[in-house]
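The data are passed on as follows:
___
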Amino acid sequence: MLLLSVSHAWAQAQLTVTVNVSNNGEQMTVYGFVTNPSKQPVEGAQVSIQVDDVSGKTIHLALIYTDKDGYYLDQFKMPENVNGEFRVYVSAVKTGFERAIAQGEFTSIPEFSTLTFMFVVVTTLVSLMLRKISKPPS
């Protein structure tokens, strides 16, 4: 009798994921690329995005897929009255590849609303004009 034992170690290729964050005050954009070891884009990779504040509270979760160029993009509005340091965790997976993980940090600082400022200026201007108009001529 002949016993044969064969062991296969299927090494999967490692994905690479990049993470970038931009902030225009209220709208946050998390974006990047998923590539294979040959630096070629990976289409259809599942990208998981989690944004936490410094206390560890999750303020945003998303699950999206890369396009034909390996590009992913997620936009979301920051919750009101939330500012400070945040951590972004990004994970990319696709069948036949090992999971890729990246993380980054960003700071969100609330900005004054131009509309609110304009409202105050207009209100003051209208008030001054009404006072001038309502004065009887001398």
Summary: The chain has one domain: 13-134. Residues 13-134 form a domain with the Immunoglobulin-like fold (CATH 2.60.40.1930).
